């Protein structure tokens, strides 16, 4: 296929990974929509300022099936071929994952398969691990369970707190995610 791959990025918060993806896109992919389940997500304001198309809808009061149908429609209307989750804090239903099978990726702040779910940095520090890090993986029905596409290790330093470690891992995420996404959309 010719032209850049068309990627939708889903966010719920500040969207720093979305920004890193946008800034590193080059000719490999194009962000065709930034979508959020949180209409007030700070990342949406950044996307609007940078002239990226946006879609925002809260599932509150409409229920998950209606919300996901609207989301799916917005992504398809934008021409998205791939979905990159970037701090998207809501679980996608099995039905949604099935519709986009093999086309959704996520960035997770641990060295998967270690520390799926939340509080990854605190768990790595508490376990006495020498390193934390981040992983980009394919999204399947299993939480943080799909094929790992790439990882970056970040050393845990004496005196690290979850916050100081998170900051360094986030910088690694911003390097890792665009590089892995570029490879992935070439598949
Ligand atoms: C990152 O730590 C990412 O690994 C996790 O959620 C956070 C999102 O941060 N999935 P941001 O919204 O991209 O700044």
Number of individual domains: 1
* Radius of gyration computed on alpha carbons: 16 Å
- What small molecules accompany the polymer chains? 5-O-phosphono-beta-D-ribofuranosylamine
Which ranges are low-confidence, i.e. pLDDT below 50, for 5 or more consecutive residues? none
Q: Quick check: average pLDDT?
A: 97
Class, according to the CATH hierarchy?
Answer: Alpha Beta
Q: Could you tell me how far the N terminus lies from the C terminus, measured between alpha carbons in angstroms? A: 11 Å
Count of runs of 4 or more consecutive helical residues: 6
- Percent helix, as a range, is 25-40%
Instruction: Output the structural class.
Output: alpha/beta
Major β-sheet annotation: 7 strands, mixed
User: What is the topology, as strand order, of the major beta sheet?
Assistant: 3-2-1-4-5-6-7
What is the 3D shape? globular
Domain Formyl transferase N-terminal: 6-181
Binding site for (6R)-10-formyltetrahydrofolate: 64, 89-92, 106
EC number: 2.1.2.2
Catalytic activity: N(1)-(5-phospho-beta-D-ribosyl)glycinamide + (6R)-10-formyltetrahydrofolate = N(2)-formyl-N(1)-(5-phospho-beta-D-ribosyl)glycinamide + (6S)-5,6,7,8-tetrahydrofolate + H(+)
Overall description:
There is one protein chain. The protein is built from six helices and seven strands; from the N terminus they run βαβαβαβαβαββα. By secondary structure, the chain is of the alpha/beta class. The chain has one domain (5-186): Formyl transferase, N-terminal domain (Rossmann fold), CATH 3.40.50.170. It has a seven-stranded mixed β-sheet, with helices on both faces. Helix 1 (16-23) runs parallel beside helix 6 and helix 5 packs across helix 6 (162-184). The radius of gyration is 16 Å and the shape is globular. 39% of the residues are buried. Bound molecules: 5-O-phosphono-beta-D-ribofuranosylamine. 5-O-phosphono-beta-D-ribofuranosylamine binds at residues 11, 13-17, 86-87, 107-109, 134, 170, 173.
């Amino acid at each position: 296929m010719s032209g850049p791959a068309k990627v939708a990025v889903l966010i719920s918060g500040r969207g720093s990974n979305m920004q890193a993806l946008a800034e590193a896109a080059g000719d490999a992919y194009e962000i065709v929509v930034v979508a959020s389940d949180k209409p007030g997500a700070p990342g949406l304001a950044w996307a609007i300022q940078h002239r990226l198309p946006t879609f925002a809808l809260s599932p509150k009061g409409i229920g998950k099936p209606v919300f996901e149908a609207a989301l799916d429609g917005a992504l398809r209307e934008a021409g998205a071929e791939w979905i990159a989750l970037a701090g998207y804090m809501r679980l996608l239903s099995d039905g949604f994952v099935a519709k986009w099978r093999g086309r959704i990726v996520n960035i997770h702040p641990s060295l998967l398969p270690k520390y799926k779910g939340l509080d990854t940095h605190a768990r790595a520090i508490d376990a006495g691990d020498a390193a934390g890090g981040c992983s980009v993986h394919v999204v399947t029905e299993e939480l943080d369970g799909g094929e790992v596409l790439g990882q970056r290790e970040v050393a845990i330093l004496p005196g690290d707190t979850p916050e100081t470690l998170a900051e360094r891992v986030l910088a690694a995420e911003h390097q890792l995610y665009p590089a892995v996404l570029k490879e992935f959309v070439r598949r």
